[in-house]
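Progress narrative, work stream C.
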Amino acid sequence: MKTYETSATVEEQGRVLVAGVPFAPGTEVAVTISPKRLSAEEFTAAWRRVCAELRGRPGLQSITDEGFREEIDHYRAGQ
């Protein structure tokens, strides 16, 4: 199946315009919309902000980034 990936910005009233697609007029296409993923740099910066905010809470100053990751992994595993 031929796919085409691009990004767009949601306009007023929830409209999204995708122009220049490589399909012939009249071709029925499937459309899936999701928020754009962060770049590695953006994700790292966001992770560091979250960790810093958590460390600012009482009793959490000594937890490392790895400690936060372990807690998240345990939570996801249902432990």
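Work stream C, second folded protein:
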Amino acid sequence: MIIICVIVVAALVLTYVMMFPVNAYASDVTTPPPEDFGTSGDYDDSTLTFPGQEPEEEVIEPMLMITGGPIQLDIGQSYWIPYIMTDFPPGVLAIWESRNPDVAVVTSDGQVLAVGPGDVEITVTAGQKRASVLVTVNDLKANNIIIVVDEEIIKTGPRSYELMVGDVTRFTVRIEPEGAKVEKISWVLGNGNVASLTQSGATAEFIAEGIGSTLLTVKAGDLIDEITINIVESGVPLATIWDYLKYGVIFIIIVVVIIILAAWLAARRKKEKLRQRAIAAKRRKEEAERRAREEAAAYEMKREAREARELREAREPRPAQNSERETMRVSGAAVGAGAAPPVDKKTEIERPLTIDDLE
């Protein structure tokens, strides 16, 4: 058993020693250069180091680059230009510039906005580095044209209008989207017997000459728009009379609504007054009942006090009253004998009531 342990330990020590390279114990030995040192152009001796010489630090150059190729935009569109900016000293900022602001402008954070058709170079500068990209702004194409009608013209339908003989009206064209370019604009009058037309680009002057109807059309390439114009005699047009009728009906409806609302408010106000009067009458009744109850209670208290006093006086002995009774008997006897008893008015008035008097 001891022999086996010794063998295992020896094997571990040998394995540990073999893990170290031979140069680890000979760091002070200089490695000789290769045979073709200095003679072969393919060998780079700049990376060799000698004892006591430290390797030179690698110098990293800043990098500024715009990613992506040329940019295509339509008028009115905007786009953030992607770019890479690395290894610059602190505080160095990217500065953007447009070589032609009439075509496109760029903000300080690299957002370019298309202004007009053409090509423009957008550059970014940071320190001594510069990068650029070509931006092409396409012409904005129109997708719709609309005849603009003056608000004073009477409208009789979605695309129908009414004029009187002798009216002179100017029509114009609105191009959508705004700023888009179109081909040559032309105006066409359907019925030249009732009107004449003088056109100048996006504007046309319409003269109503006779009674009737005509179709006014404007064209720009594949885009078309048209309206119908009805010409009537001079005077008040039927459409205007109808407008008056409509406005009159609307006015009458408004007046009726106001009257109904005022009547409702008056009825509500009257009802509220009646309710307030009923509340006030109820309060007065309650107050009268309260006072009657208080007076009845006071009267009852006085009556009870009087009865208690009379009962107390009846229970107390009154000698003076006995003598008075004798006097009355004598007086009575005298009366019976035909003589009138003497009457003391003062005594009669001041004498208190007795139980006999009550009986």
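The two ends are 150 Å apart (CA to CA). No further action is required on this item.
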